[in-house]
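Predict structure. Chain length: 157.
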Amino acid sequence: MSGRHWAISLLLLCHSSGYAAEANIEEVASEYFAIYASRKDFNKFMDFYEEQSVLKDVIYDVEVIGRSAIRNFFDWERGEFKTATAGPILSINNQIISGKTVISTGVFETFYFNGEKLGPWEFVIWQEYNEVGKIVSQSDWINYSPKKILIGRNAGT
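Prediction complete.
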């Protein structure tokens, strides 16, 4: 069997056995944050999450399990959202990738939600991906401001 036929046979064997090539987590994370930053394709954004993903918003003390619950949590169609500038809604300042773990720090830029000005919000997002590049768990640490959205009054008063 020639080298070419051997490679094709191996490829077909791997495909038929359900084996999927391991995802390049750096590329997947980069695409995830690019889509998040543009905030234009919610379905593609949701495709990054594995069916039974777990999402924790640590500051709000909220945990949702499953892609459907995560879809409801993010719901880009809820309310009136408008960016304050023409640029992306978020930027990444630093990113550490180790194996299937991605830790990203950055800023959600100023935006308006239902007419209320919010942000900028610094964040740390900790993600665990599976071998095919789907997010299986995510913890969001977001410095929400103004603080009154968390405590019902202005901080320090």
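Summary: Strands lie at 49-57, 62-65, 81-83, 90-98, 101-108, 111-113, 116-118, 121-129, 135-142.
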